[in-house]
Amino acid sequence: MLRRLIPSIVQIRGVKQLVDTKWVRPEYVPAYKPERSGDLEGLPVIPPSALPEEYALSEEIKNASEAVKQIFSIEHRGKKEYNKLVKKELINRIRRHQYDENTAETRIARITGHIRCLQDTLEKFPRNVQAKKTAQELIDKRKKLLKFLRQYDYKKFEWLLEKLNIVYKAHPESLHKLSRKESLRKLTEMHCEEIRQGKLTEYRNLLESQQGPFLKDKIDALKLIRSEQIELQLPITVTEQDIKKVEQQFEEWKIKDDLKQQARKKKKNLLLE
User: Fold this and answer.
1) Do the beta carbons of residue 98 and residue 116 sit within 8 Å?
2) How far is it, in rounded angstroms, from Cα 34 to Cα 236?
3) What is the per-residue pLDDT for 6?
4) Cα(19)–Cα(153) distance, rounded to whole angstroms?
5) pLDDT at residue 18, rounded to an integer
């Protein structure tokens, strides 16, 4: 067993010595950030002059002056009333009827509104530990509800994601710990793959550059064979169609080669400029 492992260990060590790979630990993204929670949209646009729900239904406020309406607006009522309107706006997007309050869709919309309000708060106060904890608990709860909805009604699940502008990110089946050794191995494999692809590209370009002279020589050889067969009255194995086919291939190669030459000239001019 050791005899089999020694050559691979030596080879890996040699590759690490030859290839200059630098590993940088990825930047940590908190769980409440939209990149990890799956929220593609921020807070909905609610005008500061909007009235809270309990005052908007009042008949007296409708006939009141603008100064009174401004006093009772969310601009002077605080963040709590603003968050209520955010949740209401998201719930109204997916609500079936006015009494729909406890279905899976409305619960997800209500939790989504709460999460986005907490995300806005954490952007301003990133050291608020209680808000971080609450946001993480709500994100996990929403994932469970989305998983339930996905299992029992997939069409409604897709419709809900589109309406609320969410990306579903399920819990990973197993925890994979990031390590420097594994990352260096992947970087080395990527570097070797780039070298291999580069050499294959160079070899392909070399073969394509030799294709034109080869086709030209082939046309001359086919014409010579046909003329000698006709002259010596032998069975003709090379037809005019065969020669025209090779000539067509040669013309196509000339067009491609001209385009490549023009692209190279443009690239050189850009580098010189």
Assistant:
1) no
2) 75
3) 41
4) 51
5) 55
